[in-house]
DNA sequence: TCAAAAGTGTTACAGATACACCCATGT
DNA sequence: ACATGGGTGTATCTGTAACACTTTTGA
């Protein structure tokens, strides 16, 4: 094998900011693991791992994500590469960071082999993190807020079928502001991106809300026609 | 030195998509170099180079940028990392891509040591490019369009003092649509981000237009107050 | 005086905001 | 019957879009 560059190279990793929405607390949460190995043994950190030669970073990120959550089909987006030489005390490690949106309920965290423990934390109240993971998390949050206002990704934090109130609560939690119920529903429904499944909520002690699902095919069609999702 | 990871690692590079605005042709342009070495010897490509251990990618990108343009103080933003194993025929090379906005006139391209030649191409009419650089360029363009609609970066493609018509032409070239003169001026001026320098265009064969400059301090202040630039 | 681009206001329309009550269901 | 959240309409306001002529200057 011929080499392009014979000098020392930085190591390459991926890190995943895994977001979930706690419908009970109306709170955006992030999945963290407690490190089982040095450096930062015992500290909380974002799940991540090394990129193998011959594997692209999307694949690497999805591998890490599946190890933590057991899920394959989740929303995942690369958002920034962090490359400060001192971010890892051992040597120069460059990390490609991703954020994922997962339906919270279906993912009781369980510790992986590399981790002592895994748990969901409110994004408003995260413990001290290993490496530069606090910076990565803050950047991810910023990107998520922007993203949610310009692309219909709110549903990714909910089960496939959801109520309009749940969807509104997702937006309120992520954007950090309350929204007017009637205006929210008007706007969302006027975009024609949601399908009424005909089914309703079960086991609630009041009038059951209608369940909706996101119409991905329709969104793709609208986008091609120049449609722009907003808030 | 202790190593985090003893296995083979991908190589790491940066690539720069350098945008300029040709005021004569009202055209957005990109600076390309013609490769002096294999692979893809003689092909046009984005300027770029390897990231050294101990150097972050912003520094590496700025180094490449300065080699090509001779300029230090330009707008530069990381936008995506490309990591397909086959993107470089020699081995797995991961590239962190940046886009730069430079005032076109002040940068007559001159070939670097690594390049046979360097030249500005209209983004509407680029030659066949080495590696996956066409994909990188297309992604950069998409990001630039988004960016220009949400942040005041249009000026970065112009000299420090510019006319409102020039600014409008930048937006028209980047967004690929014509804009109404009166509405454009009304909107831009109402944001209170431009300062009238009191000077006017020189050496034009008609009424000289006023020269304006961007008020970066004011923009920072407004942003803190929750202001959102749009279009 | 002509050519070329600079500069300027008003009206119409659409989308955003603000706001309060009745309805359905389970206990 | 009551408690809980589900679901709905209208009036106002604000910002966007459409649109054409006069002014300045140099050649």
UniProtKB/TrEMBL annotation, chains A, B:
Source species, domain of life: Bacteria
UniProt xrefs under SUPFAM superfamilies: Nudix, Winged helix' DNA-binding domain
Domain Nudix hydrolase: 11-144
MF GO annotations: hydrolase activity
InterPro entries tied to this protein: Nudix_hydrolase, NUDIX_hydrolase-like_dom_sf, NUDIX_hydrolase_CS, NUDIX_hydrolase_dom, WH-like_DNA-bd_sf, WH_DNA-bd_sf, WHD_NrtR
Keywords: Hydrolase
Family: Belongs to the Nudix hydrolase family.
Protein name: 8-oxo-dGTP diphosphatase
Naturally occurring in which organism (per UniProt): Roseimicrobium gellanilyticum
């Amino acid at each position: 094998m011929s080499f392009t560059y014979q000098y020392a190279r930085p190591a390459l990793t991926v890190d995943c900011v895994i977001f979930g929405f706690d419908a009970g607390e109306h709170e955006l949460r992030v999945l963290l693991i407690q490190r089982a190995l040095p450096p930062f043994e015992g500290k909380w950190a974002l799940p991540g791992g090394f990129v193998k030669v011959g594997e692209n970073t999307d694949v690497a990120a999805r591998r890490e994500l599946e190890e933590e959550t057991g899920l394959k089909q989740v929303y995942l987006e690369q958002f920034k590469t962090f490359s400060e030489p001192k971010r890892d005390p051992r040597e120069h490690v460059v990390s490609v960071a991703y954020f994922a949106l997962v339906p919270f309920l279906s993912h009781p965290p369980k510790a992986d082999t590399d981790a002592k423990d895994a748990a969901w934390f409110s994004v408003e109240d995260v413990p001290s993190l290993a490496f530069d993971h606090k910076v990565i998390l803050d950047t991810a949050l910023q990107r998520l807020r922007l993203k949610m206002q310009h692309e219909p990704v709110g549903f990714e934090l909910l089960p496939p079928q959801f109520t309009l109130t749940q969807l509104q609560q997702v937006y309120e939690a992520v954007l950090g502001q309350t929204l007017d119920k009637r205006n929210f529903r008007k706007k969302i429904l006027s975009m024609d991106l949601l399908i009424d499944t005909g089914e309703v909520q079960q086991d609630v002690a009041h009038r059951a809300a209608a369940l909706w699902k996101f119409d991905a095919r329709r969104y793709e069609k609208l986008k091609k026609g120049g449609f722009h999702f907003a808030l």
